[in-house]
């Protein structure tokens, strides 16, 4: 038996909630939660991804389940590096791949320090060259929009930590805004509502379940009731209550309206020619947070522009990240484009 080693291109969506890996010629090969379980006493990683997620809120004192990214950027550098190393290796599977060229996506308004942290962590995880791309641009490419045309397209990418809003034309971002309100803030709003109204403490996973199963952004679309288990803050004992769709919608009203207002503000700053294009083509919603039931309708109501949720919403960014590596030569020579050759 013999092996050979091949260089390849890899796209990574290093998300607050999920990490996805895309391999040229293979497509999306990995999709796992960005969670790492660490033994604090031994400073040792015990599990990464789905296995570690199962441990959230259920670990003994010496084991912590850490989410090393917050608000779309690295908050725990060492753990991010270990997680990336694991995912890059797992994503390559049995293929013997020598140091790959890796494109990683970043939120639109990441600082230079935050970008440098992503580059260093990816390099130290085995990458040969590291390139960065803004999330909404990657989302647009992944959703199959022809971004090289002189037509305006608007993409709203709602992840776990950040919402990125961008108007794209001629391969670049013309107007952008980014806010640290997305899926995680929806969960927090649900936790707060249940704590205040029922004096019941619930965990992040329960809140996320409620959001996905019965939550919505727009009134009258869903009418469900769901039992919820947690810890009663008065008795200190386990307790179960019933929650309905309407109260979850009310709890989500604030973060949802802040996102819609940002989309509105970006439209107001958009040059008129591009606005006219967007009026015609509509707004594209991507990312897991964009799947919140009725969010498309809500944004439509606030902006007056039709909104479409992308197919494979969660995979758009990583697909675009991976596919953009094909255009590296062009990108290198077009320094004014948003995709920049960093190293
Ligand atoms: N069907 C659904 N309805 C509502 N929310 C959903 C649904 N599916 C996934 N989500 C939410 O999507 C979010 C994760 O989205 P995604 O994987 O795109 O984020 P990310 O890329 O990790 O985050 P970021 O881009 O902010 O770093 C989570 O908050 C998750 O709860």
Helix content: 25-40%
Secondary-structure-derived class: alpha+beta
Strand content: 25-35%
Strand arrangement across the biggest beta sheet: 3-2-1-9-10
Number of domains: 3
Bound molecules: adenosine-5'-triphosphate
Global morphology: flat
Cα(first) to Cα(last) distance is 36 Å
Number of helices: 11
Oligomer: single chain
CATH superfamily of the largest domain: ATPase, nucleotide binding domain
Task: Name the helix and strand elements from N-terminus to C-terminus, one letter apiece.
Answer: EEEEEHEEEHEHEHEEEHEHEEHHEHEHH
CATH architecture of the largest domain: 2-Layer Sandwich
Measured on Cα atoms, how large is the radius of gyration?
Answer: 21 Å
> Tell me, what is the CATH class of the largest domain?
Alpha Beta
How many individual β-strands?
A: 18
Largest sheet: 5 strands, mixed
CATH topology tier name of the largest domain: Nucleotidyltransferase, domain 5
Mean pLDDT, rounded to whole units?
90
Uncertain residue ranges: 1-6, 331-338
Structure in words:
Helices cover 37% and strands 27% of the residues. It has 343 residues and is of the alpha+beta class. The chain folds into 3 domains: 9-137 and 318-333, ATPase, nucleotide binding domain (Nucleotidyltransferase, domain 5, 2-Layer Sandwich); 149-181 and 255-314, Nucleotidyltransferase, domain 5; 183-251, ATPase, substrate binding domain, subdomain 4 (Actin, Chain A, domain 4). The strands form 5 sheets. It has a 5-stranded mixed sheet with strand order 3-2-1-9-10, sandwiched between helices. The chain has a 5-stranded mixed sheet with strand order 13-12-11-17-18, with helices on both faces. The radius of gyration is 21 Å and the shape is flat. The protein starts with 8 loop residues before the first strand and ends in a 10-residue tail after the last helix. Mean pLDDT is 90; it is low at 1-6 and 331-338. Adenosine-5'-triphosphate binds at residues 13, 15-18, 72, 135, 159-162, 182-184, 208, 211-212, 287-289, 291-292, 314.
């Amino acid at each position: 038996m013999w092996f050979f080693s091949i260089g390849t291109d890899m796209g990574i969506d290093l998300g607050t909630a999920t990490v996805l890996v895309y391999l040229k010629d293979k497509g999306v090969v990995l999709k796992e939660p960005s969670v790492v379980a660490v033994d604090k006493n031994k400073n040792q990683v015990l599990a990464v991804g789905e296995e570690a997620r199962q441990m959230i809120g259920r670990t003994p004192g010496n084991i912590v389940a850490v989410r090393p990214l917050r608000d779309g950027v690295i908050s725990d550098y060492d753990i991010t590096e270990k997680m990336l190393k694991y995912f890059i290796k797992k994503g390559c599977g049995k293929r013997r791949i020598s140091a790959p060229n890796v494109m990683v996506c970043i939120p639109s308004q990441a600082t230079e320090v935050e970008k440098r942290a992503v580059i260093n962590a990816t390099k130290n995880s085995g990458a040969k060259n590291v390139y960065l791309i803004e999330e909404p641009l990657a989302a647009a490419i992944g959703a199959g929009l022809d971004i090289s045309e002189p037509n305006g397209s608007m993409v709203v990418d709602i992840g776990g930590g950040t919402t990125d809003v961008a108007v794209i034309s001629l391969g670049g971002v013309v107007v952008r805004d980014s806010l640290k309100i997305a899926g995680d803030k929806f969960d927090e709003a649900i936790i707060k509502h249940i704590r205040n109204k029922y004096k019941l403490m619930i965990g992040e996973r329960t809140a996320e379940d409620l959001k996905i199963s019965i939550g919505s952004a727009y009134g009258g679309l869903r009418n469900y009731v769901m039992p919820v288990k947690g810890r009663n803050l008065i008795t200190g004992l386990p307790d179960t209550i019933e929650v309905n769709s309407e109260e979850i919608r009310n709890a989500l009203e604030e973060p949802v309206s802040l996102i819609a207002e940002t989309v509105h503000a970006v439209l107001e700053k958009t040059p008129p020619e591009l606005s006219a294009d967007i009026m015609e083509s509509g707004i594209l919603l991507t990312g897991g947070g964009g799947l919140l039931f009725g969010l498309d309708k809500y944004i439509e109501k606030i902006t007056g522009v039709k909104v479409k949720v992308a197919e494979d919403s969660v995979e758009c960014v990583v697909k675009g990240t991976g596919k953009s590596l094909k255009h590296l030569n062009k990108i290198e020579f077009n320094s004014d484009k948003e995709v920049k050759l960093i190293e």
